[in-house]
Amino acid sequence: MAVSVRAAATPLDVGRIRADFPILSRKVHGKPVAYLDNAATSQKPRQVIDAMSRVFEDHNANIHRGVYEFSETTTAEFEGAREKVARFLNAASAREIVFVRNATEGVNLVAYSWGRDNIKAGDRIVSTVLEHHSNFVPWQQLAKDVGAEIVMIDIDDDGRLRRDQFTAALKGGRVKFVAITYTSNGLGVVLPAKELVAEAKAAGATVLVDAAQAVPHQKVDVRDLGADFLVFSGHKMLAPPGSGAVWAPEATFERMRPFLYGGDMIMKVSVEKTTWNELPWKFEAGTSSYVDAIGLGAAVDYLEAVGMDKIHEHELFLTGYVLPRLEDVPGVTIYGPKTLDDRVGVVSFNVEGVHPHDVAQIFDREGVCVRAGHHCNQLLMAKLDVPATTRASFYLYNTTEECDRLIGAIQAAKKVFGV
Amino acid sequence: MDDMYRDYILDHYKNPRNSGDLPGATNTYHDTNPLCGDEITMALLIEDDKVKDVRFKGRGCAISQASASILTEEIKGKSLDEVKAIDRQHVLENLGIPISPARTKCALLGLKTVKGAAWGLSEWPGDANTAGIASGKE
Ligand SMILES: Cc1ncc(COP(=O)(O)O)c(C=O)c1O
Fold first, then answer.
1. Distance from C-alpha of A33 to C-alpha of A368, rounded to nearest angstrom
2. Chain A contacts of B2, Cβ < 8 Å?
3. Residues of A in contact with B1 (CB under 8 A)
4. Which of A37, A147, A217, B32 could make an SS bond with A121 (beta carbons 3.0 to 4.6 A apart)?
5. Residue A366 — left, alpha, or beta (φ > 0 → left; ψ -120 to 50 → alpha)?
6. Is the pTM of this model over 0.80?
7. Interior CA angle at A104 toward A98 and A107, to 5°?
8. ipTM, 2 dp
């Protein structure tokens, strides 16, 4: 989705939003916390915390099992959360939503269940240097096991995908599968996912879109996108860790074998033979993280009430605020696009003479939380030719004051290191 | 926390002692710390069971590089047995700064490479965590 917002002001009432997040009033080392590590995980609003506490305090029971009120209420909330996620993504039905613990488990579900039956020796799998390890390593290992070949697509100097390479890879033939991220967690670049999906499908490939950094930050419409699979994690979108989903059309899920075997995912078991439960439960073996899923439902409610378009605009507003200020600091190198086109609020940078981990450590003293490291993006770090970067990433509750503190913390780090 | 980047730590980081190649090195060991992307290659010249000379090359965070630099000063001239006996507690105390659990691996990478070289290893046997050298996880 191409977005070209040039907001001079935020469309959000950030003060009101912040009041919903108890953790944001905490102090760290005597300073108010400036939480700028949202690409790693997000904080949780009272509404999500309460929805989860309510289950434990009021009607906790295992789902799909009891015929008593607690179990029925919990099951209804769990399945209600699935309906909310389906609506949020504009899926055709809740049967297209399989709950998993996180995006990583979602990718592995597809790799084990679909991949092992469909990707054969000599087939090609196309992926990109922007992938998080969770959307690369499963495919790399599958390719090794079955004798398939991985074709990697590079980025240009601005961090944008090399479309020419992508097109050439598809033209090269034998491409069975394409595993691409919607949004880079390392650089904040949003890929033209819809176009890439269409191109890949026209070439006969099956496509998985890793939307772990997209679903939390912009409106994602699975029917409009047209991919075969989409995965995301709840914890990056105000929901608890342990929640997430794989989306696929029913017909695709129907043709796939289960991923994990055990309770809840079966219809009938005899010594000779087992038949599988209906969708989506066929893919949900064992007791699910049902309270986490209910938390995800509450997070979806919260995000929808605020409005995904406004959240996206707010993040671009903050990015537009921070980029020129960062560029003005001598010795700072920014990685990724310097404009607001097709990006989200993820800003990766390095300070000359100070290792990213030392930067983050000094930031901590200032109460500023950022991520330093390779961001599970070692392919990207190799491409950028750096061992690590410092990354600030924004969400709906961040403010321009926090951006100012980020810049101030860089000055503090430079002072400590005398650079 | 304020004490982490003391002057002598920054000094060792910016002006590492015993840094560079060691022609004629008898034992060399290389290792990395994936958390920070730290890298250290430790080269020892061992004669008569003594560390006659030592040099290291590396890149990474201030803690990893300063710790390695400090360690090279300490082991020069020591017997192999003495070097093999240095433990993590000693290195952390010697650094003299508070090290958070997340940064322990940085602080101990130098020790790991010194041990690897002293024992004449080419690869770390088994899991460094169980060997009591490194700790902390990404
Ligand atoms: C783009 C992207 N994909 C996948 C993941 C993996 O998410 P999780 O650790 O929740 O499985 C992340 C998380 O950092 C991510 O940013």
1. 6
2. 365
3. 29, 361, 364-365
4. A147
5. alpha
6. yes
7. 65
8. 0.85
